[in-house]
Structure formats: C-alpha cells, structure tokens
Hints:
- It is a single chain.
- By secondary structure, the chain is α/β, with parallel strands linked by helices.
- It has a domain at 1-116: 3-Layer(aba) Sandwich (Rossmann fold).
- The protein is built from 9 helices and 7 strands, in the order αβαβαββαβααβααβα.
- The protein has helices spanning 6-9, 25-33, 47-56, 94-104, 124-142, 153-161, 183-201, 207-222, 242-248; strands at 15-19, 39-44, 62-66, 79-85, 105-116, 166-173, 230-236.
- A 7-stranded mixed beta sheet has the order 3-2-1-4-5-7-6, with helices on both faces.
- The longest helix has 19 residues, at 124-142.
- The radius of gyration is 19 Å and the shape is globular.
- The termini are far apart.
- S-adenosylmethionine (SAM) is lined by residues 20-23, 25-26, 44-46, 49, 68-70, 85-87, 90-91.
- S-adenosylmethionine is lined by residues 20-23, 25-26, 44-46, 49, 68-70, 85-87, 90-91.
Amino acid sequence: MRDPFRILNTLEAAYVLDVATGRGDFIKILRDNLKSYIKIIGVDSSDKNVDRAQKLFPENDIEIYQMNLESLRLDDNTFDLVTIADSLHHLENMEAIFSEMLRVLKPGGSLLVMEMYSDGDQTDAQQTHIMLHNWLAAIDRKLGVYHHNIYMQDEILSFMNKLGLDDLVVDAFYHPVDNPKDAKNCETLKRTCQESFKRLESLEDNEELIAEGDSLLDRINNIGCASASKLLIKGIKPLSNKKENLKEK
Ligand SMILES: C[S@@+](CC[C@H](N)C(=O)[O-])C[C@H]1O[C@@H](n2cnc3c(N)ncnc32)[C@H](O)[C@@H]1O
C-alpha cells in the first residue's frame, strides 16, 4: 500500500500546531514523517488528554497545552503548518475554530486536515466501524455531548472549499486489514460496546440504542471491523487576503 503520509515527507515546517490533539496520535505521525521541524505544539481542551499527551512526549521540541480552539492563546501568523486529525466531527463550532487555525497560520503556510468519511466504496468490515462510531455518537448526543456522525466526503470537501485556501490537494486512503475478525481489535471494540451499555443504563428511552448495540456486537463477531476510509486534505493560506483585494477593486 502506498504511504498515505508521504505528503508530510516533503514538508519542512519549522513551527507546527496540531489542534484537537487528543492523546497525541497524530503528533506521533507528524514527528515520524515530517521532513523537518523545530517545534510541534499540540492543543486540546480536555485536561485528561492533555495530561496523557504531555507524558507521551517528554522531548523538548514537542509541547502540549490545554486550550479552547475557539480562542487560541497564540499570536497571529506564527505557524508554518497547522493540522487537525480525526476531529472535525467533534467540533461544535467548526467555522470559528478554522478561523482561529487560519489566524495563527503564516501566509504561505499549510493547513492539513485528516478526517474519516462514511460514504464511497467501503468494505463490510469498514461499515461496522462507521455504524459503531455513529452509535457511540448517538449515545454521546443523548448525554448532551456534541458528537456528529461521520461526515460524507462532499460535506468535508465543501467545508474545505469555503476556506479560500490555495493549491488544495485531496487524497483518500484506508488501511487494509488482513483479518477483520482479528481478536485484539475486536476485543477492544467489544469492550467499548460494553462500556457504552453501562452509559446507556442511566438514560430513558434507551431501548432502540440497546438493540442497536446488541446487533453491533453480533456484527463485530460475524464480520469484524476495519477503520473507515479517510481524506487527507492540504491547502496553502494565501499570501494576501483575497477578500481585502476584492474590496480594493
Ligand atoms: C477524536 S479526539 C482527537 C484525536 C487526535 N487528533 C489524535 O490524533 O489522536 C477529538 C478531540 O477534540 C477535542 N476538542 C473538541 N472540541 C474542542 C474545542 N472546542 N477546543 C479544544 N479541544 C476540543 C476533544 O477534547 C478531543 O480530545
């Protein structure tokens, strides 16, 4: 399989910001694949995730901070590369957050988005992942936590197209799985289902979600699971503000 992160091998980005860093999985990918960097900063609002990511990266050139993405405590035009991975569907106010990401990105710098999608030609095992994700998202929503279903490719692309970036490059990829019923992966997912059943216990009108969870457990046993396909999208922040230029004409 071709390397989905080869786009990073050519990037010499001195100062990198990864937003919605979570536990730091994408920072590992940046650290291991960028051609060069001086510093990677990760930011997230969850104190638990920030704590875990801080412990994961003891190196001096990776720093993790707790921050709300809607009001980043960072200067304008600071970063050569700003990234967000596997998180669009967790952002309640996507416009405000991308406006902040673009504010701190230098003109000529790159914005990189990685996000799974739900449509297109995906295997039965990938469909299990999509259904499982959307079941977990429905439980979160019932508990008052913002969690959107996995977006379709057009939804992600039409959002990206509105940002006014130059040289947009779009790639789609997935990690093929030899045996989707592979015990380790499936055991983890089954544990996630069991934990979610416990979360459901406290909710009223939970019968439909419980039945859906039961059928998902059967599906994991019978078909297995593999990660949904992802889009990797890169664009450049224009050197001049196109909207300003238009006003001047
Ligand atoms: C799926 S996780 C991130 C995964 C991560 N990018 C990785 O590579 O492992 C989504 C993250 O978005 C964060 N998040 C959602 N809305 C946020 C906001 N407004 N400000 C800061 N973090 C936010 C959550 O705290 C959560 O850690």
